[in-house]
Amino acid sequence: MKTPFSLNKIARASLIASLGILAACSNDGTTTPEANNALSKTEKIWPKLNIAVKQDPEIEAKIADYLKTMTLEQKVAQMIQPEIRDITVEDMRKYGFGSYLNGGGAFPNGDKHATPMDWVKLAEDFYQASVDDSIDGSKIPTMWGTDAVHGHNNVIGATLFPHNIGLGAANNPALIEQIAAITAVEVMATGIDWVFAPTVAVVRDDRWGRTYEGYSEDPRIVRDYSAAIVNGLQGKADGDFLSDKRVISTVKHFLGDGGTVDGDDQGNNIDSEQDLFDIHAQGYVGGLSAGSQSVMASFNSWHGVKNHGNKYLLTDVLKTRMGFDGFVVGDWNGHGQIEGCTNESCAQAVNAGLDIFMVPTGAWKPLYENTIAQVKAGEISMSRIDDAVSRILRVKLRAGLFDKPSPAKRQFSGKTELIGAQQHREVARQAVRESLVLLKNKNNILPLDANQTVLIAGDGADNIGKQSGGWSITWQGTNNKNADFPGATSIYAGLEKQITEAGGRAILSVDGSYEQRPDVAVVVFGEEPYAEGHGDRDNLEFERGNKKSLALLKSLKEQGIAVVSVFISGRPMWVNSELNASDAFVAAWLPGTEGGGIADVILKAKDGSIQHDFSGKLSFSWPKTAVQATVNKGDDDYSPLLPYGFGLTYGDKNVLADNLDEDSKLDNSALTSMDI
Ligand code: GLC
Asked: What average pLDDT does range 3-28 have in this prediction?
């Protein structure tokens, strides 16, 4: 149940301004004469991009040859992307799907502990079935898409980098490109070709459960990062573009996913068209200009029209006006949300410009059959099918999939030493260091001397799953144990190692109890892992109705023990009470497997010198009330608790006193367990 939203002046203006386009776009996304007129007025909004990857006449000629020889069945099969839990290798042999995916929490043989070689074997089996023309008459190689959104996060032992919100705070595009290149290598070690990343959402309402998948509320960071990630994943267009060291990238989710009303996941974006470009499209300007070869359509609507069926956005804007010549892949049966569509039947999406149906569950077979029938019945034109298939073949040819060895025989496949390699983890640890933002440091308590007795408390202290967040082994990042992250370092383990080496003593005590009184306490607490809509919240109050972390902080303070808080979260939250109870407060976001990065910054070296100073700066404004969920840099009445770009370094004057307003202004009387 969301608090009813009141249209602020921007939303009201944009709604009025955009109604003209909305009224002209019918529900199936086709445009009407009025919309065509509106198009001319908005021509200037969407620039033709200078895309680094140019069309290759040889590739275009090959595409034309393939189209001449392919049957309708073979063409439609290229547009169907089933999920590994729903098809067999023999289905692949029979139908020749153009691609397939594993969703979050899907593993070869349904085994969470599948080895890298299990992933490689499945990739090889599906590939060999796809090029076997004995049944479907097609030799076109298939390709495997996976969500490697903060490292190869489905695979046991992989390096998990800080989630995007932390990388946004690091504000280091060169590091981001390195992270993407490492991710590509670990993905290829498992025989996979294609990554559904980067997410380029510009998040404007932090109640959204995918806030942490965004780099920032600032479109400029997202634009620059998107290009860096695409270059790291695919290689630069004038470099080793889609070589055997690189994977296909996907900029997602097109368009406006970070700007829905109330931050509702899969909700309605009512921004003006100008704001849609200025705020939400900048990641596509960066990523598509760098040559990203695919775009994922978004679940959200724009002025009530589902993006998966919006021809104006998917075709007129993205393909015709911006000049994108790769393919558009749908998101997880997103086509089924279009009015008049089902997961099994949706000509509207193809006509709007969707090129590949991501169709998990058993819907793939009826969808395949219905789409063929819709072409035969004239509901979908052959030219639209040929355009979609041309785009898919163009990307496969650019990626060299017709010439590369099969997955098992590629240069990184099966090199399990690459997965979670120490040098990869070192880069991730650097990213952790650079992502940390120091919000409070009373009396400059940080950095801590390591040669003292440090109590390390809180349910996040020795909890690698919690510090990694959603999209970590499992989709929601839940039901994991530390043993599910071999090679990883919890925040406690990182602190304990350095404190012990310095002659101090680290005491792990989740509930804060102790026998030997500590000199100082580090308390690691924060949000439990979540992904997508499961993370949507009514407001930004942390632990609303169950202030167990605050109780721990206060208990230690009442015993006269100084408290350093390390806050694990996928978004800025309202933590005024927790801030007041802390001597120092670090926003650690979702650091991933390399928790040692926290010790590197908050502890002095053995010789008492600063190891690493804080460099992270807020890429999201920090709220001063529990309902200030849409405070963003550039607002007319901008008044956060801590502004975008804030971050203390050592020696800076502390700015937060201990008397922040502790009234959440929320009526807890209606509180239900669902709100916590
Ligand atoms: C999910 C997400 C998308 C992801 C896809 C495949 O629902 O919206 O980001 O790439 O499904 O897992």
From this structure: 42
- Residue 492, domain member (yes or no): yes
pLDDT digits (tens, 9 = 90+) for 400-431: 999 999 999 999 999 999 999 999 999 999 99
In terms of pTM, does the model score above 0.70? yes
| CATH code of the domain containing 451 | 3.40.50.1700
Residues 378 and 257 placed together within one structural domain of the fold: yes
Q: What positions carry a catalytic annotation? A: 331, 532
Residue given tokens 């086509």 in the structure block: 335
Q: Are residues 406 and 440 in the same domain?
A: no
Q: The CATH number of the domain where 151 resides is what? A: 3.20.20.300
Residue 175 CA to residue 185 CA, distance in Å, equals 16
**Atom of ligand 1 at shortest distance to CA of 299?**
8
Distance between Cα 560 and ligand 1 center (Å): 47
* Residue % of the chain over a pLDDT of 90: 91
Strands 453-457 and 505-508: parallel
Sign of the alpha-carbon torsion through 366, 371, 376, 377: positive
List, chain by chain if needed, residues with CB within 6 Å of any ligand 1 atom: 101, 103-104, 147, 196, 252, 331-332, 532
**Ligand 1 centroid to 125 CA: how many Å?**
24
CA of 123 to the centre of ligand 1 (A): 20
604 CA to centre of ligand 1 in angstroms: 41
Task: State the DSSP code for 626.
Answer: T
Quick one: which of 590, 528, 619, 480 has its CA closest to 162?
Answer: 590
Q: How far apart are CA 628 and CA 612, in angstroms?
A: 33
User: Considering the domain boundaries, does residue 329 fall inside one?
Assistant: yes
In which domain, by residue range, is 555 found? 436-620+645-654
Show Cβ contacts of residue 39 under 8 Å, excluding neighbours closer than 6 positions.
Answer: 31, 312, 316
The pLDDT of residue 35 is 54
- The verdict on 444 and 332 lying in the same domain is no
Amino acid at 559: Q
φ/ψ bin of 347: left (φ > 0), alpha (ψ from -120 to 50), beta (otherwise): alpha
Contact indicator for 265, 212 with CB cutoff of 8 Å: no
Per-residue pLDDT reduced to its tens digit, 561-598: 999 999 999 999 999 999 999 999 999 999 999 999 99
| Residue 339 phi, psi dihedral angles, 5° rounding | -55, 125
Ligand 1 probe mutation, 195, 331, 361, 530, most atoms within 8 A of CB: 331
Which residues, in sequence order, are CB contacts of 199 under 8 Å at separation 6+?
Answer: 149, 164, 210, 213, 214, 252, 253
